[in-house]
Specification:
This protein has one helix spanning about 100-115, and strands at about 1-5, 10-20, 30-50, 60, 65-70, 75-95. By secondary structure, it is α+β, with helices and mostly antiparallel strands. Strands 1, 2, 3, 4, 5 and 6 form a 6-stranded antiparallel sheet that branches. It is elongated.
Length: about 120
């Protein structure tokens, strides 16, 4: 993906919404990794939100292979990348539910196994 400002100098935007879980809000965390290559005068920043309305302060990314921290208490994570004269590639996301959610999943699995006996 190549970000280039328009003739008026407006930044290019790309947004993601990761619906992390079904069945209601829960705490999750994870990372987004990407390769960033800047061209002359280039800049790339990102911001995150749990609800799509209240956004964290933008963070400017360095070139190379930065890792962005993601977290949400609402079960969905929104990420917006914005900039100009920059290319991104090899974007990957890794999200992990909170331990309580994993415990509930394990408990459900144990209940299913007991039921089969």
């Amino acid at each position: 993906m190549f970000f280039r400002a328009d003739a008026g100098g407006a930044l290019a935007y790309m947004a993601y919404c990761f619906p992390l879980v079904s069945g209601g809000p829960q705490q999750v965390s994870g990372t987004m990794e990407l390769d960033v290559t800047y061209f002359t005068g280039g800049v790339l920043a990102y911001s995150v939100s749990s609800d799509g309305s209240n956004w964290a302060s933008p963070v400017v990314l360095s070139g190379g292979h930065p890792t962005l921290s993601l977290a949400s208490s609402q079960g969905t994570c929104y990420v917006t990348l914005f900039g100009h004269e920059v290319a991104i590639d090899n974007l990957s996301v890794s999200l992990i539910p909170e331990p309580a959610s994993l415990a509930l999943l394990a408990l459900g699995g144990v209940a299913l196994l007991r039921r089969r006996k």
